[in-house]
Write a structure and sequence with these properties.
The complex is a heterodimer of chains A (about 110) and B (about 120).
Chain A lengths: L3 E4 L2 E4 L5 E7 L5 E7 L5 E9 L2 E4 L6 E3 L9 E3 L8 E8 L9 E2 L3 E5 L1
Parallel strand pairs in A: 2-11
Antiparallel strand pairs in A: 1-3, 3-8, 4-5, 4-9, 5-6, 7-8, 9-10, 9-11
Chain B lengths: L2 E3 L4 E5 L4 E3 L2 E3 L5 E8 L6 E7 L7 E2 L2 E6 L4 E6 L8 E9 L9 E2 L3 E6 L1
Parallel strand pairs in B: 2-12
Antiparallel strand pairs in B: 1-4, 3-9, 5-6, 5-10, 7-8, 8-9, 10-11, 10-12
The chains are: A mainly beta (about 110), B mainly beta (about 120).
Chain lengths: ~110, ~120
């Protein structure tokens, strides 16, 4: 199993540009999550999904959109990039919720908006 | 809202020695879970250890153990026989017990641990 994969690894955007961060998991997990990690900070939840077709906002959803058309994929869309969105983005997945369902993280995407 | 505080931005330890990382949290919940995650320079987030609040016994995983003090809302991580590969950022995280809703992980700001040879 590849686990959770993310593309791209790095990206530089200009203000106002759009892009999609890709996330795929091959563990047949129901739950998927998007986090951002700002310098010197812990991770903050952007959006999450409890299954295909179901998504909901996390702590910091403004400026982002998500979709979940399949169990495997959970892309994160930035429509109008702003410097405040410069961060490292992590995708994660878990089989379910609760302590017994560990969240597995992808390697992250480092995004810079200039 | 729950908050997680890690008061030590950076720590260092000599190889083979023991180090303790501090974490405190604030919650009105009685049932919840606590975690320590490791983030090495590769950026990969790795679960180190977890603790259920209803369990009085402290969790252990090989060289890693926790000191869970529920009344004090404290959850420290002890690393014994430190190894160079333990060099990483360590994040403490909190999650409410699942109640059929949307329980989420809340992270602290992290402690950067350096193990010196």
């Amino acid at each position: 199993n590849a686990g959770v994969t993310q593309t791209p690894k790095f990206r530089i955007l200009k203000i106002g540009q759009s892009m999609t961060l890709q996330c795929t998991q091959d563990m047949n997990h129901n739950y998927m999550y998007w986090y951002r990690q700002d310098p010197g900070m812990g991770l903050k939840l952007i959006y999450y999904s409890v299954g295909a077709g179901i998504t909901d906002k996390g702590e910091v959803p403004n400026g982002y959109n998500v979709s979940r058309s399949t169990t495997e994929d959970f892309p994160l869309r930035l429509e109008l990039a702003a410097p405040s969105q410069t961060s490292v983005y992590f995708c994660a997945s878990s089989l379910g919720q609760g302590v017994e369902h560990e969240q597995f993280f992808g390697p992250g995407t480092r995004l810079t908006v200039l | 809202a729950q908050t997680v505080t890690q008061s030590q931005p950076e720590m260092s330890v000599q190889e083979a020695e023991t180090v303790t990382l501090s974490c405190t949290y604030d919650t009105s919940e009685n049932n919840y879970y606590l975690f320590w995650y490791k983030q090495p320079p590769s950026r990969q987030m790795i679960l180190v250890i977890r603790q259920e609040a209803y369990k009085q016994q402290n969790a252990t995983e090989n060289r890693f153990s926790v000191n869970f003090q529920k009344a004090a809302k404290s959850f420290s991580l002890k690393i014994s026989d430190s190894q160079l590969g333990d060099t990483a950022m360590y994040f403490c995280a909190f999650m409410k017990q699942w109640q059929g809703g949307s329980e989420k992980l809340v992270f602290g700001k992290g402690t950067k641990l350096t193990v010196n040879p």
